[in-house]
Every structure is written in C-alpha cells, then in structure tokens.
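Dear support,

Our group has been running a series of protein-ligand predictions, and this particular one with adenosine-3'-5'-diphosphate is the one our PI (initials K.S.) wants archived with full inputs and outputs. We had some confusion internally about which version of the output was final, so please treat the block below as the authoritative record. The input we submitted was:
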Amino acid sequence: ESAERKDEAKSYKEMISTFPRVQWWSYYEGFWYHSMLLEGIMSAQDHFIPQSTDIFITSSPKTGTTWLKALTFAICTRSRLSGSSASALLTKMPHECVPLLEYHRAQNPMKRDCAVPLVSTHVPYSSLPKSVVSSCCKMIYICRDAKDAFVSLWHFIAELQRSRNVEPLSLEEAFELFCSGISGYGPYWDHVLGYWRASLEFPEKVLFLTYEEMKKDTAAHVKKLAEFMGCSFTLEEEEEGEVQKIVSMCSFDKLSNLEVNKNGTHSLDTLIDVKNSAFFRKGEIGDWKNNLTPEMGARLDDIMEQKLKGSGLKL
Ligand code: A3P
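Confirmed final output from the archive:
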C-alpha cells in the first residue's frame, strides 16, 4: 500500500469519525453506512472513472442483487462461452463475477475483468461518483417489497454477527431502526426513490426493476435486460432456448445448490469472510409473514406508502 493511499485512508477515517453515528452506521450525504464501506465510497467518489461501456448493477442490499448480477453476467458473457452459458457462474459466486464499487475500490486498484463491463454498487443515486452520473453508462436498479427486504437484511446481518461472535440485534430493535430510516444504505425509501426518479428522467440510461416482477416472468426480464444492455438475443438464440438456459442457470435452486455457493466463502470486507450461502436464504416473495407480525407489516407498508406518495411508484 502506498504512503499516499495510507494518508488518504487516514483522512477518510478522520472525517468519518466526525459524522453522526448510530450503532455501527455513520451518516453521510443523507444515508447510513457501515464505516468500512464508507471509506470505499468516499474514495470512489474522489477517484473512480468508469469505462464508457460500463453497466452499473445498483440496489439496496438484500433486494436481489446476487440474482441480478448472475443474470446480467450470464447475459453478457453468453457469446464468449460457445454453448456452455455462463460457466463462470458454476465455480464463482456472482459477487466475485461482478465487483462491488465501494468495496473493491477501497482495495485499490479495483480488480476487474475489463471484458465484462459490469460493476455493482449499493451507493444511492445522489451519492454516486460524479464521473458515473455524468457518463453515458447505463444502470440497472433492482428493488423489492420493503418488508421482505428488511427481513432478508435482518437474517443476513444476524448471520454476519454470529460469525463475528457479536450478539445480533433483535428483530424488534432492527425493525425500529429500519422504520426510522437507519439501515445500511438506508433510508430504504430514499434509496428507491433516488433511482426511481432517475429512471423517469433518463429512461434510456436507468432501468428500474422489481424482484417481484422478475420472479413473475424471469424470461421476459432476461430479454429486457439483454435489450437494455445492448446485446439482445438473436432469433436464432431464442430458438435455441438461450433465454431459458440463462433463467435456469441463474435460478435460486440452481445457484444455491452449487458447491461454491453452498460451501464457499468470499471476503465482504477486510475483516471477515462471508459464507456464500448467506446470499441464498429462501428466495421467496412474502417471507416477511414468517418473521414480522401483521401489525409490523402494516406499519412498514404505511411508511412506504407515505414516503412514495406522489412519486408514481408503488412497491
Ligand atoms: P431472502 O433472504 O428473502 O431469501 P441480495 O442478493 O441483494 O443480497 O439479496 C438477497 C436475497 O435474494 C435473498 O432473499 C436471497 O435468498 C435472494 N436470492 C439470491 N439468489 C437468488 C436467485 N437466484 N433467485 C431469486 N432470489 C435470490
């Protein structure tokens, strides 16, 4: 690590130490972040320059990022693989196929396969590096019912904390925080609204998707994604069942049963390795019902409805 990098990291740390803090989240530009990722975000804001062909996979955590990464990776590598569609996904976790801007940027330089023009980020639209917003790069955003996103997040964090021997937050505590906007990259509604408004303003640049719609008709979304990414399926490919091959390859059942995703690990930050299986929990719509009371569900629905009022978006 260069002396310059060390100085920079130190100055980010100093700045971060002055930000408002709740639990392990720091507040920056209207959103809450885990401090370690915040350094990466600030560094990306200062230094990241996209390639003009880059496509950004954007999301709040736990809204279907892993799935969207797998699908977009499979779509854009299909022609390279002469028949064995997306074989890299058989041995690599989707998060290793598509780097995360704020994490990998923090480990300067960002390791990437330049032939695959995909970069992912959880950074809210309003805090994206200016170089990204002012570029012609496309973005694909995925979001999900807030109750399911919260429940998925709670299970994921509890899993991480167990592996660090930290007592997990109770569901009730985490729910209260989430409802007041405090969660990694939250407030959730502001995250969603930022990309929603961008997708209305720049429809050719920002594609806005929901987990629920993708589940309902994955094949139609694979085609839509390919079209948006500028690599539509040819008639020949469609006749050969290429779309369906990608849908199956990236399905929850297929991915979650691969050895790499069942027993592998990857590093999420410099301190811990995360079990890949933590990214594949249930993959269902409506699992919140098994975790939250109907009253909690109604409360979060009310919050979302109020926050999204007038935006034209219903989640
Ligand atoms: P659950 O916790 O509700 O099961 P992210 O990838 O953004 O971290 O989101 C994780 C959520 O997506 C988890 O939801 C996970 O099970 C689900 N998921 C992961 N891979 C999936 C796939 N291939 N198809 C559908 N859902 C998937």
